[in-house]
């Protein structure tokens, strides 16, 4: 069921208004207070854009460690406006994905009865309570969808990060757009969006593995343009024919026929489970399946478009700026070591390394070793979810682990995984039956940050030696994050997967929908009953 347009418009207008108010407040605070609202990174962005407009290199600005594309964009567009616009675009993508997950549902078993009820034009007093109950359920549904969308659009943390001048919303919008395009089977466009995201922020390359595994499900998907009305009509015809056939039987033989048909259906289901995995790919994919099932046509198309986008942009900027483009945009982030206080587990270790007499080579090796548990664990959790078709949970879990184990972790990094949360909570018990646990998890997440921020304030503003306290606060925050991730995964419903027409929960259900769409379901049910009667 799609979101009510009134709720949708209200959420988006409120999101724009909130960001406008915060942006104006930031201008006022920057002019009257010594503590600036605008982030220091925004000054780096604007200075690099000024250098580009003057015909110079953006890397002439110290600490500019980003792609030149960002500086080029800020030459023509105000940076905060661009970041807030991408914020709203991410909210729209969240709405689109939730709408797909809600609208594309398998046909119910009592579809014929539901369609008959919909065709009744003259309501009577008997069904008026049912209608009022249905309207109440629809209102609750719209409210829940509005709440899930507001978790990003009206989240003050997200709005503050964007209005302060951080560019994280660009990556969030591009990754969510890639997910939406993959769900709509727009493989090439999804690859272009993903390649652009990796070019802007190299960390997004970690999504290549879950995307690759998820695309495997699209090879067995139903055609993207099946008419749902025809599908419902076929199911209704099947139900009506089976009902008329059963009524023509005598009452004495009816029970025996039902028992034997149930046994035959159980045996046929066990056979169909083994056959359902042998879906024949389209002609364009036969060569790929002969080489190896791991290399499907859609997977190779996604890889080709994303790699082409990434390499083309990289070649253009390498031609313009040479090796400093590679060094500051990509290589720097691999060997980066920030000894300034942050939420990272490695903060205290990096701080001690910076004060010790270590060779540059040894320091770089120490930074590379930190990638092993980070990449290994994040890849493991993403594969566990992606192979079952739960792409959003795979991206959320992978990003959550990646940020939790990163060498540098600041508040703006939380946006990397918060953009997936409104989609996950759509089918999570943490907002329904276990909402108290959800509130507890949120409180622990905020409280553990408050403990760390208190120690950071004592260090930075009061000049007290709280390095060890900061270290233990970071360990506490990591433990809380690990427990939150486990609870979020456990509270999520059975993994679902988008299959062109609907969300198919099993291979058997997918096979049934394929037979109905082809018109074979009615014929098979006839043959099965005739064999049992004979």
From TrEMBL:
Keyword Transcription regulation: no
Coiled-coil regions, chain positions: none
PANTHER family recorded: GPI MANNOSYLTRANSFERASE 1 (PTHR12886:SF0), PIG-M MANNOSYLTRANSFERASE (PTHR12886)
InterPro entries with a match to the protein in the record: PIG-M (IPR007704)
Family indicated by similarity: Belongs to the PIGM family.
Topology term for the membrane: Multi-pass membrane protein
Region (Disordered): 108-139, 237-281, 515-534
GO cellular component, one term: endoplasmic reticulum membrane
Protein name: GPI mannosyltransferase 1
EC number(s) from the headed UniProt entry: 2.4.1.-
GO function term, MF aspect, one: GPI mannosyltransferase activity
EC supergroup of this enzyme: transferase
